[in-house]
């Protein structure tokens, strides 16, 4: 159950989370959100626990209520260069860069993070299911990334990205085996099971 929008009352906090870490294609996207201390929402939760309809409705509520928010995107090419963990941290840094207000504390979903400048941070395992600000970041990151994958699907409908969003589903992997890869695929990932081969 979500606790509140803040970790320390009276401190300007930004919740941070990412989406798309386990995908075979597309960018990793992160968001940073600063919410009012009194923010409450009956539906808002970890984006993975919400339906697409609920994510869209909570997104609207977040954008209307947030003091500030930002989105950070890291491309598949950058992911291949620096690895997905560092790419996730970089996406969060880029999201924090977009905030119009400087946070005093960052609430990071997960157990690891690369420090952002001189700003203090605390890592919270499954934080997107505990704090409103992290859950809000989870929703904004997820909905933004889903929209990007829907746009890419228009150019490459054969991979089914409109439905699988680039995750390693059976249909996605079968499409990779049949059609090869695009510039949107992450070459550093195991795109196919070892039983299947493809020239990259």
What is the CATH C level class, in words? Answer: Alpha Beta
- Number of DSSP helices? 6
Low-confidence stretches: none
General form: globular
Main sheet attributes: strand count, strand direction, barrel closure? 5 strands, mixed
- The fourth-level CATH homologous superfamily is Ribonuclease H-like superfamily/Ribonuclease H
User: Domains counted in the coordinates: how many?
Assistant: 1
- Strand content of the residues, in percent? 15-25%
CATH architecture: 2-Layer Sandwich
Radius of gyration from the alpha-carbon trace, in angstroms: 17 Å
What is the topological layout?
Blueprint: E1 13-19, E2 28-34, H1 52-65, E3 68-74, H2 76-82, H3 84-97, E4 105-109, E5 120-124, H4 132-155, H5 161-164, H6 170-179
Parallel strand pairs: 1-4, 4-5
Antiparallel strand pairs: 1-2, 2-3
Helix pairs in contact: 1-4, 2-3
Describe this structure in words.
- The chain is an alpha/beta fold.
- Helix content is 36%, strand content 16%.
- Strands 3-2-1-4-5 form a 5-stranded mixed sheet.
- β1 and β2 form a beta hairpin.
Summarize the structure.
With 200 residues, the chain is of the alpha/beta class. It has helices spanning 52-65, 76-82, 84-97, 132-155, 161-164, 170-179; strands spanning 13-19, 28-34, 68-74, 105-109, 120-124. The chain is 36% helix and 16% strand.
């Amino acid at each position: 159950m979500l606790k509140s929008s803040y970790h320390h009352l009276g401190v300007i906090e930004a919740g941070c989370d990412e989406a798309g870490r386990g995908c075979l294609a597309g960018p990793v996207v992160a968001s940073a959100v600063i919410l009012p201390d009194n923010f409450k929402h009956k539906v808002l939760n970890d984006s993975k626990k919400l339906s697409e309809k609920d994510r869209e409705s909570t997104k609207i509520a977040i954008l209307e209520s947030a003091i500030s928010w930002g989105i950070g995107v890291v491309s598949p090419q950058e992911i291949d260069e620096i690895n997905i963990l560092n790419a996730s941290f970089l996406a969060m840094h880029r999201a924090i860069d977009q905030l119009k207000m400087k946070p005093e504390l960052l609430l990071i979903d997960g157990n690891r993070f690369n420090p952002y400048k001189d700003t203090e941070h605390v890592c919270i395992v499954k934080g997107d299911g505990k704090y409103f600000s992290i859950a809000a970041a989870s929703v904004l990151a997820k909905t933004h990334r889903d929209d990007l994958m829907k746009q890419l699907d228009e150019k490459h409908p054969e991979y089914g990205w409109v439905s699988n969003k680039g995750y390693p589903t059976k249909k996605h992997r079968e499409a990779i085996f049949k059609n090869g890869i695009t510039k949107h695929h992450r070459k550093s990932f195991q795109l196919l099971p070892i039983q299947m081969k493809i020239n990259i």
